[in-house]
Design brief:
By secondary structure, the chain is of the alpha+beta class. It is 29% helix and 20% strand. A 13-stranded mixed sheet has the order 4-3-5-10-9-11-12-13-14-18-17-16-15, sandwiched between helices. Strands 6-7-8 form a three-stranded antiparallel sheet. It is globular and about 55 Å long. The chain starts with 21 loop residues before the first helix and ends in a 6-residue tail after the last helix.
Length: 424
């Protein structure tokens, strides 16, 4: 089906070990050096703006060039079809000609898995790569059951060690009660029942293991470019298919898609989003393409903001947002610093857009943000009537109409983008 030979998966539902010991991992890596050479040979292609939009002539290497798609060998037909659709998009955008792999084969080749971005399609029950991406931002009922079983069978650390409780999961979450109900839970989104689709970026666990084993190319500061897993998942095959469609059509890197009949609150609260906070795309005027004439900034995709970001904006700005979008970019610095990552907690290389009630509220929000962050602000005017303030460090808060915009791009990239802003 792809570059790596297929194999029959082991028992589905088992919680797999990570990558074994260092010696075992090194042996596997050496065995698969030829596979990496084949992947690299097929990865040469045209540049692309974002993950799926071809645009030749851009200097930065496109993410698609180093991206593969995986799906479980025994995954339902809708998941297989969704994976094929995403793989076709990746290949058309400059990625490997045959980038669709089985999750079982990719998991068996940790060097290949750790040196590529991975779009992992499916559920925890049928995609072993998804089961390697431990995280607590979102969780299906199946994941909860697997975690419960793992907590029961894993040797417990004693409470006497550094004063820590036996269960690290309980220590980190404050107990299971607040997240262990319903068919699907997503931190900052809420609890959901029925068919749910989810796209969520996370750090590539295979890449982290390679770095821990000293396999990588650090820069002068000892930092290594990170690779990511874009999890295209959900509670069932229908949810997975909806999530894949969202990623393919609007470059949603972090989004939750409830079923059509889901009962949602009228508005957001610190713990969950309301019915009005599930946008299908950024505003039409948003800078969702590469900056013309600038090869050092590439649009990657956007993240649906979670409720804690809504609450943080309201606290800092003194104005409640109606909608918030987060646009992510690739810059010459790559993904070496945590704040530059595509993951939800990282806020670097980003443009944040908030919609508020009206123009007066937008101006009040900018004044509030300015007062809550640093000093030395100077009036600043960008393109198309955007006005606001800029700090000596390069922080920018702007408003135009009922919209507020802030950016965290590096010097040079921010100036290029601000010159091309369009009016809402």
């Amino acid at each position: 089906m792809g570059l790596i030979p297929r194999r029959h998966p082991s028992t589905i539902g088992a919680v797999p070990d990570f990558l074994g010991s260092r010696s075992e991992n090194d042996i596997v890596c050496r065995k698969n050096l030829l596979v990496i050479a084949a992947v690299a040979a097929l990865s040469a292609g045209a540049g692309a703006a974002g993950l799926f939009d071809p645009q030749p002539g851009v200097d930065l290497p496109p993410l698609a060039k180093s991206t593969v798609v995986c799906v479980g060998e025994n995954a339902p037909a809708p998941e297989q079809e969704a994976a094929r659709m995403l793989a076709d998009k990746v290949s058309a955008a400059g990625g490997p000609a045959e980038c669709l792999l089985t999750a079982e084969a990719l998991n068996d080749t940790p060097l290949a898995a750790g040196t590529h971005h991975i779009i992992a399609v499916g559920t925890w029950l049928d995609n072993v790569v998804l089961r390697k991406c431990w995280g607590h931002w979102s969780m299906t009922r199946w994941q909860r059951e697997m975690l419960k079983r793992d907590q029961r069978t894993r040797p417990r650390a004693t409470a006497a060690v550094a004063g820590r409780p036996a269960s690290m999961l309980t220590a980190r979450t404050g107990g299971p009660d607040w997240r262990w109900t319903g068919d699907f839970f997503a931190f900052g989104f809420g609890h959901f029942a029925g068919s749910v689709g989810c796209v969520e970026p996370s750090r590539n666990p295979y890449s982290l293991q390679l770095i821990a084993n000293g396999i990588g190319k650090p820069d002068d500061l000892g930092k290594v470019d990170q690779f990511f897993v874009i999890k295209v998942t959900g509670t069932d095959a229908a949810g997975v298919a909806r999530a894949a469609k969202a990623l393919a059509e609007t470059a949603m890197l972090h989004v939750l898609i409830p079923n059509a009949g889901a009962k949602l609150p009228a508005n957001w609260s610190p713990g969950e989003l309301g019915a009005g906070q599930f946008p299908s795309a950024p505003p039409s005027w948003a800078p969702t393409s590469d900056v013309p004439g600038n090869s050092s900034l590439r649009y990657v995709g956007w993240l649906q903001a979670h409720s804690l970001l809504y609450a943080g904006f309201a606290e800092a700005a003194g104005v409640e947002p109606k909608l918030v979008w987060r646009l992510k970019y690739q810059t010459p610095g790559g993904f070496k610093d945590y704040m530059s990552f595509l993951t939800p907690r990282a806020s670097g290389n980003e443009v944040l857009i908030a919609e508020v009630a009206d123009e007066a509220a937008a101006q009040k929000a900018v004044d509030g943000l300015k007062s809550s962050v640093g000093s030395g602000w100077q009036p600043f005017t960008a393109a198309s009537g955007w006005q606001g303030f800029r700090s000596p460090e390069g922080d920018t808060f702007l408003h135009c109409g009922r919209f507020v915009l802030s950016e965290s791009l590096p010097p040079g990239c921010d100036e290029a983008l601000l010159k091309t802003l369009r009016k809402p």
